[in-house]
Amino acid sequence: MKVLMLNGSPHKNGCTNTAMQIIAEELKNQGIESEIIWLGNGPVRGCIGCGGCKRSGKDRCVFGDDGVADIADKLKSADGYIFGAPVHYASPNGATIAALDRIFYSAGKYMQFKPAACIVSARRAGTTASYDVLNKYIGINNMIAVPSTYWNMVHGNTPEEVMQDKEGVSVMRALGSNMAWLLKLLASVKGTQLEKPVIIPKEKTNFIR
């Protein structure tokens, strides 16, 4: 079993990565493999709603010049997910949002009914607003939100400061432990009628007809 973690911070080894390393260590302690993928610090284009990923039949974003489509391909085969972002102006940084829009639009169906969690890092404020934004991706895609002992956030301006946030560190460790627990529970019912819920077709309506 493998958990794929997307580090959306422009700083590869910054505070978001530090939180993910804590989660990865706990997963390893419980026999779960993990991989941290860095989004990078180059420009990331947003989704333009062209529908090319659907028309191609590949469930892959047609824009392949910023690495997002490659990340989506990796996500398809993972068993669990962690999406992490720093707080910029009281919301997740723009590159993370742009990437997740495209990833969920093109390959969201491959992540359904799998455990996932979002984490955020900030020097001081904006964490809860950012956390809410990121969790909406999980909530719209039939995913299993992994709990912890508090909202999944760490505080600090450097990795060293993050490690001084003892509560934040414990929250990340608990998140890793709960992720491992859920993955093992799901593996235990694989191949049975409990593997997936009864699928209820989605009804789409518009406010103005």
Shape: globular
List the secondary-structure elements in sequence, H or E.
EHEHHEEHEHEEHH
User: How many distinct helices?
Assistant: 7
First-residue to last-residue Cα separation: 46 Å
Proportion of residues in helical segments: 25-40%
Question: Could you characterize the architecture of this molecule?
Answer:
- With 209 residues, the chain is α/β, with parallel strands linked by helices.
- Helices cover 40% and strands 17% of the residues.
- The chain has 7 helices and 7 strands.
- The chain is globular, with a radius of gyration of 17 Å.
Key traits:
7 helices; 209 residues; single chain; 7-stranded mixed sheet; alpha/beta
